[in-house]
Design goal:
Length: 436
């Protein structure tokens, strides 16, 4: 009786284990590291803020792990399917035979080879989709950081005007309170001015809460502790918006905007899945070689074929699902493309309208400054009373606050247009963006 070749089996098993990946634990930490507390004392420009956000934003750091996952899936899709090997041993227990029977078979799944190309195409398109989505998320994060910088700088300018107005209103309120105590005026006459001071305090408190929220949101994007004060430099002058260039860029959104490129890559991946489903409608086929020996040492061998009979299931359900999904992605892409262009043109019209309003208020700025100077001189000379003086301050401060609000809205619209157009994005789709 022949002895099985146990050493050879053990050697093959050991070699197989040597090529396997091994498990290593990664325990969760009991406490996460604290946010940064130092960013320097120099004022940060918008460009520096964008660079810091790309380096430190926690959400971006987490999202970039998706690239590694997509690359691993791409690697898996490109690996050839393993052949299958089967073996049986029949030891002689009784009868006229004088040998150990055995059967060996080596098979390869031909359907897996048939769909290998489409699966690779699907994984490649899916990886491109992930990279485009990551780039779009990075650009949207930069846009959010830009908006926060605009809001903080403009709201701090607004706070200066509000504080000056608040001081004047408080001075008039205190004078009225003293007049009331002396019974020089009645309560009905003083009520409007006292109410105006109270409203100014409410507006001041609301502005301070908004500034705190904006600063904390920016600190979170910079991975800074909430109590760290980030000093921002003055915003650069915005060049005039070229309406023709914006309209032309809106017509080319499909060529460079990452979210549209991501949708296009997702559509390509789905198209590859549909082709794989169509190929899978053919009967599953395995082809290989089989050899055998019976107990009387009679040996045989030859090709072995295994396939399913396509009587009931011809993968028609999966094909219908993949075809419908492809149509859904097609409709989604067309709708997003149309919506994106309309959003750009809508913002462009709003920006042009806002520009006319800003120009009208800007023409009054010089006259307001001159009027304020004349009022200050008249107040020091005693030519006007306190109420008239504060009314003049309130009128000029209100127009100044309106100018700041319009400037803030115009800058926010410019940032929104840049985000929608993908202005400033690189031409390629890197896996990680390290500079704006």
């Amino acid at each position: 009786m022949e002895r099985p070749y146990a050493p050879l089996w053990l050697l093959a098993f050991a070699l197989g284990l040597g090529g396997c990946a091994h498990y290593s634990p990664m325990p969760l930490p009991a406490q996460a590291a604290s946010a940064r507390t130092d960013i320097g004392s120099a004022p940060l420009s918008t460009v520096e803020i964008e660079r810091q956000v790309l380096m430190h934003d926690p959400e971006l750091q987490t999202a970039r792990a998706r690239h590694q996952i997509a690359q691993a899936q791409l690697l898996q899709a490109g690996i050839l399917p393993n052949p299958s090997f089967d073996a049986n041993v029949g030891y002689l227990l009784s009868g006229p035979g004088d040998a150990t029977a055995w059967t060996l078979g080596l098979n390869e799944d031909m359907q897996a080879l048939l769909t290998l190309r489409t699966r690779r195409s699907e994984a490649k398109a899916a990886a491109n989709q992930v990279d485009a989505e990551l780039l779009w998320q990075e650009w949207q994060t930069l846009g959010k950081a830009r908006l926060l910088a605009v809001d903080i700088v403009e709201d701090e300018a607004l706070a200066i005007v509000q504080h000056r107005l608040l001081e004047s209103l408080d001075t008039r309120r205190d004078a009225l309170q003293q007049a009331l105590e002396r019974h020089a005026i009645d309560q009905l006459s003083a009520a409007p001015d006292i109410a105006a001071a109270a409203d100014a305090h409410a507006a001041w408190d609301e502005l301070q809460r908004r500034l705190l929220d904006e600063r904390q949101a920016l600190n979170a994007m910079l991975d800074l502790a909430p109590n760290v004060h980030v000093t921002l430099s003055a915003l650069p002058e915005s060049p005039p918006l070229d309406s023709r260039a914006v309209t032309a860029a809106a017509d080319r959104l499909a060529q460079h905007r990452p979210d549209l490129l991501a949708l296009a890559a997702g559509y390509a991946a789905q198209d590859a899945r549909l082709r794989s489903a169509l190929l899978a409608q053919f009967p599953p086929l395995s082809f290989g070689f089989a050899a055998a020996q019976d107990n009387s040492r009679v040996r045989s061998g030859g090709p072995a074929v295994t396939f399913a009979l396509p009587i009931f299931d011809r993968n028609q359900g999966a094909i219908a699902v993949e075809r419908a999904t492809r149509q859904q992605l097609y409709d989604e892409y067309v709708a997003r493309l149309r919506q994106s262009r309309d959003e750009v043109l809508g913002l462009l019209a709003e920006h042009e309208q806002l520009g006319a309003q800003r120009q009208a208020l800007a023409s009054l700025a010089l006259a307001d400054r001159q009027r304020q100077q004349e009022a200050d001189i008249a107040w020091r000379r005693g030519s006007i009373d306190l109420r008239t003086y504060v009314d003049l301050i309130m009128a000029t401060a209100t127009r100044e606050m309106n100018r700041i609000a319009l400037e803030k809205a115009a800058r926010e619209q410019r940032v929104a247009i840049d985000i929608l157009l993908g202005t400033g994005l690189p031409g390629a789709l890197p896996t990680q963006v390290t500079a704006p």
